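ARCHIVE CARD
CATEGORY: sequence design from structure
SOURCE FIELD: tokenized fold
FIELD CONTENT:
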């Protein structure tokens, strides 16, 4: 009887936070060690932007430039992770998505037939500024929704020493 590999397809959702980049590094190391197919996604959170518009936090002109800035950031982070993977000889797929973070991540994982979804853990408190407190809450809510509703195992990466491990792997 032939055994099916537990990990064939791994997907990582990044959001630009240090912990999400750590999740990507962990995914790259898993892909290298186990020969997995790896996909990295970044979601432009249009659902939150829509909510902010409804609460009159943004005017339409601001929204458009904010969305474009998020798209640019997403591409920058995806390019950075692609370079990290390349430095380890790992080929990855990347995709910039738009919509609700939870819905987009779960759909991407399903479409990719992911055996595991990696996400970053909570950020170190020293990195949080008062201005970013609301962003921290939005990210925490999305993380919790993904963990509760994903159709595959979700691994939350809490590994502060990941950068050192990544360098030596």
């Amino acid at each position: 009887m032939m055994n099916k590999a537990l990990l064939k397809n791994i997907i990582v959702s990044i959001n630009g936070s240090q912990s999400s980049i750590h999740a990507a590094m962990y995914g790259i190391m898993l892909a290298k060690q186990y020969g997995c197919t790896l996909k990295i996604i970044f979601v432009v959170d249009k659902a939150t932007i829509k909510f902010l518009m409804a609460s009159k936090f943004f005017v339409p002109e601001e929204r458009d430039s904010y969305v474009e800035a998020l798209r640019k950031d997403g591409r920058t982070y995806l390019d950075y992770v692609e370079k990290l993977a390349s430095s380890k000889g790992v080929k990855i797929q990347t995709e910039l998505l738009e919509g609700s973070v939870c819905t987009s991540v779960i759909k991407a994982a399903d479409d990719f037939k992911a055996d595991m979804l990696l996400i970053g853990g909570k950020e170190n408190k020293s990195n949080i500024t008062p201005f970013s407190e609301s962003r921290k809450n939005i990210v925490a809510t999305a993380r919790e929704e993904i963990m509760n509703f994903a159709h595959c195992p979700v691994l939350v990466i809490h590994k502060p020493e990941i950068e050192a491990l990544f360098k030596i792997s």
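CARD ANNOTATION: The chain is about 55% helix and 20% strand. The radius of gyration is 16 Å.
SHELF: design records, drawer C
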